[in-house]
Amino acid sequence: MRATSLLLFMALPACVAGEAVMQETTRSLARSAVDTAAERYLPGVPVKPYSDCVIDNASTSELLALAQAAGAGSAQEVANRAWPTVRTVAQRPKAAQCLVRALSGGQLRAAQGLVIGGF
């Protein structure tokens, strides 16, 4: 019994570490898709702060959908597949507040109507 307990105790950190790596990989792929969509659909808007707000406010299922979109092929295909999810997340109140804080007035106006709407 002690050996089994010891093995379980030793395996748990490996499982946790594996899950953390998987989550980070998913977030990285999702960020790539958001970056590509933002570059395509929001010219003049800085990609990094925009992507940060979207990624930080996306649900797990949305992050997975964005990660899948990252493998769609060409940049245009990635942008087309990711954009509906990006737009949905960016319209949420917390994401919109993040965008207001992250983007300057001119950058925010460049995104207005395309994603954020209502500001």
* Residue fraction in strands: under 5%
Q: What is the makeup of the main sheet?
A: none
Helix content: over 70%
Mean pLDDT, as a whole number? 80
Q: What do you see in this structure?
A:
The longest helix has 40 residues. With 119 residues, this protein is mostly helical. The protein has 6 helices and no strands.
Key structural traits:
disordered N terminus, 6 helices, mainly alpha, disordered C terminus, globular, 119 residues, single chain
Write the layout of secondary structure elements.
Elements: H1 2-41, H2 47-57, H3 60-69, H4 75-90, H5 93-102, H6 105-111
Helix pairs in contact: 1-2, 1-3, 1-4, 2-5, 3-4
Report a brief summary of the structure:
The chain is 79% helix and 0% strand. The chain is an all-alpha fold and 119 residues long. It starts with a helix and ends in an 8-residue tail after the last helix.
